[in-house]
Amino acid sequence: MIMTPAPLISGTNAERSRMSNRQAALGQIRSAGQMGRAEIARNLGLSTQAVSNIIADLQADGLLVEAGTRSQGRGLPAVQYGINAEGGYALGVEIRPDAIFTAIVDLHGNATATRRRTLKNNEPEYLINMLLKLRAEMLEKTGVDDKRLMGAGIVIPGPFGQTGVSGLGSDLAGWQHLDAHALFEEALQLPVELSNDANAAAMSEQITTGLNNFAYLYFGAGLGLGLINQGQLVKGAFGNAGEIGHVQVMTANGPQSLESQLSRVAIQKHMNANNTIDITAIEYLFNQSDPKLMQWLDAGADALSQALALIENLFDPQSIILGGAMPAPLLEYLTTRTVLPTLSVSNREDNPHPRLQIGTCGRMAATLGAASLILNRAFTPNATSL
């Protein structure tokens, strides 16, 4: 996954925190690709000496490397600095009810190792042991020093906390009363960023596409919605914004939850397959034009059309993106069969982006997005410290 420039970030005054200025400098360099000290100082409103000290610290920590020189009129060419891809790494983890995906991602956003394992169960002890094993495997394969791991981004199906909703087989059994954040931090001995799968997938898509206002419909076991507004995730008061799977849509059998009509769990139920049908089997049935699956897809397209009307009129996005754990041919079919709502604020001619499209990050979107939660923290000053 190649990272595209992020919005430029201003520095803090001299009396503000050293860490925030380091993060701001890294964010500037990431956005530009490479920069010199004088340019960084101008952009951040810091003295050249202060930036020189920051650069020296970042080089000592292995986060920056010299990247040649650039002539700027009279005087000596200015030394340019770039992000050292191998200076730090993020662990990305996506946990689904039936599988775990992991990735180690460098500072340029490239996945250096990935793993996928089927889960016999998703009880905490079993899952933690599996995660530790996968991390060890990836570190051994890549030769990455575990001291270079800056943190772990972990995504799990929502909702978080005790709420009035639950998934149709898409939740993690036994986790509702646990402090998942504390549990993962203790097990991994790393800083942890916890998010839901749809939010992480939206982050991954935002990095690769550069879109700053969009909605991401994420097909995990269930169905979630990640919302990016002005380049930032919309999380809600308790981290549960976007639980669109629980919204009601009209069907031939009356009002039903969207997730019951449009998710992998819904396919399994419709095909009377319980948990015996996986993504590969679903794609095979689609390629065979299986009548039962095609019937489900056509009904799903109708449910999706209703969801689009809701999302577009509530959030006015540049685009709505489909992605996650669903075969690409099925997503393509849905995008072509779904009727775009006429009564929508998005029904306009001056938007250069398609109203409905398929994501670019594939089935690893949430896993890579989980890692990006850690990378973004390295490059973005904490607003509370500014």
Summary keywords:
386 residues, alpha/beta, Arc Repressor Mutant, subunit A, Nucleotidyltransferase, domain 5, 12 helices, 15 strands, disordered N terminus
Distance between the termini: 30 Å
CATH superfamily heading of the largest domain: ATPase, nucleotide binding domain
Q: How would a crystallographer describe the biggest sheet?
A: 5 strands, mixed
**Alpha-beta classification:** alpha/beta
- The amount of beta strand, in percent, is 15-25%
Rg result: 22 Å
- CATH hierarchy class name of the largest domain: Alpha Beta
The strands making up the biggest β-sheet line up spatially as 6-5-4-7-8
Contiguous low-pLDDT stretches (5 residues minimum) are 1-9
- CATH architectural grouping of the largest domain: 2-Layer Sandwich
Q: What percentage of residues falls in helices of 4 or more residues?
A: 25-40%
CATH topology of the largest domain: Nucleotidyltransferase, domain 5
Q: How many strand units?
A: 15
Query: What string, H for helix and E for strand, traces the elements in order?
Result: HEHHEEEEEHEHEHEEEEEHHHHEHEH
Outline type: globular
Instruction: Indicate how many domains the architecture comprises.
Output: 3
Count every helix, treating DSSP H or I runs of 4 or more residues as helices.
12
Overall pLDDT confidence: 86
Plain-language structure description:
The chain folds into 3 domains: 18-83, Orthogonal Bundle (Arc Repressor Mutant, subunit A), CATH 1.10.10.10; 88-200 and 367-377, ATPase, nucleotide binding domain (Nucleotidyltransferase, domain 5); 211-363, Nucleotidyltransferase, domain 5 (2-Layer Sandwich), CATH 3.30.420. It is built from 12 helices and 15 strands. The chain is globular, with a radius of gyration of 22 Å. The chain has a 5-stranded mixed β-sheet with strand order 6-5-4-7-8, with helices on both faces. The longest helix is centred in the C-terminal third of the chain and has 25 residues, at 291-315. It has helices at residues 18-32, 37-44, 48-60, 124-142, 180-188, 197-209, 258-261, 264-270, 279-287, 291-315, 328-337, 365-379, and strands at 35-36, 64-70, 78-83, 89-95, 99-106, 111-118, 149-156, 192-196, 214-219, 223-229, 232-233, 248-251, 254-257, 319-324, 356-358. Pfam families: ROK (PF00480).
